[in-house]
Amino acid sequence: MVLLDGVHLVADALAAGIPIHSAAVAIEDAVGSANEALRTLLDRLNDASVDLVDAPAPVMAALSPVQSPSAIVALAERPRHAPDQIFTGPAPLVLIAVGVQDPGNVGAIIRVAEAGGATGVVVTGASANPFGWKALRGSMGSALRLPVLDDASPEQAVADARQRGCRILATVPRGGTSVFDAALGGPLAVLIGGEGQGLADALIDLADGRVTIPMQAPVESLNAAVTAALIVYEARRQRAASRKLEVRS
User: Fold this and answer.
1) What's residue 30's pLDDT?
2) Rounded CA gap, 132 and 29, in Å?
3) Cα 65 to Cα 60: distance, rounded to the nearest angstrom
4) What is the rounded CA–CA span in Å between residue 80 and residue 72?
5) Which long-range contacts (CB under 8 A, 24 or more apart) does 181-187 make?
6) How far is C-alpha 31 from the chain's CA centre?
7) Which residue, 69, 127, 162, 176, shows the most beta carbons closer than 10 Å to its own?
């Protein structure tokens, strides 16, 4: 089960076809609400035969994990995906987040992966739960749509990607090929290290290459989600340029 907090996430779960078992709605918002989005969502939940419960403010404060309680909180099935759903198409682009402990960063990585056209994300090592409420809010619903796996070790994630024909690139703070010079086309899996320690040397050694994002001194590292965003969008740029060349030829 996953906890969905707020109108946006509950609506995204419905749109993604994720079964919702029950929902609690703030009484003061459910009765005579001026919130059109909430009223529309409640109609959709009723149509889906979701068990709705009106809850007073103290109950909503206990159920909603955020400081200012949301108008609705729901329990839904946890999304499940098979590895083949991650590595789709002729040129899959997969992010492998290793030891990303901040759930907000995990969520942001998943969001930018969806936004930039990646085919999936593997969350592994000592990373935060991608389906915890903080990560779900950080992904702004992307974790409910984009295939996400979190049941493999880092080494197994690399092996699975290689078995499906992907090159493996490891992100390193220095000493790798500049992201703007690296070839990011074709089937590709990119290892993104966690806050502070980054990727272990043994895992980097499993990769086919190393990629570095150029940084002006004295900056030595970037946030994991920022790193993921720069790589995904550079890959997107390169792939779009390659398609244009193919069309022209």
Assistant:
1) 58
2) 25
3) 9
4) 24
5) 182/209, 182/211, 182/234, 183/238, 184/93, 184/231, 184/234, 184/235, 184/238, 184/239, 185/91, 185/235, 185/238, 185/239, 185/242, 186/91, 187/87, 187/90, 187/91, 187/92
6) 34
7) 127
Closest by alpha carbon to 163, among 231, 94, 100, 210?
A: 94
Contact present, 9 and 2 (Cβ < 8 Å) = no
Whether the bond into 218 is cis, omega within 30 of 0? yes
Give me the domains of the chain, ranges plus CATH numbers: 2-76 (3.30.1330.30), 83-248 (3.40.1280.10)
Nearest partner of 224 among 249, 247, 190, judged by Cα: 190
pLDDT score of 196: 76
- Report yes or no on whether pTM surpasses 0.85: yes
Q: Using CA atoms, how far apart are residues 1 and 78, in angstroms rounded to an integer?
A: 5
CB within 8 Å of 206: residues ≥ 6 apart: 155, 158, 168, 170
Q: pLDDT tens, 89-123?
A: 999 999 999 999 999 999 999 999 999 999 999 99
CB-side exposure of 245: number of CA atoms within 13 Å? 6
**How far from 203 is each of 43, 151, 153, 198, 210, CA to CA, in Å?**
49, 17, 11, 10, 11
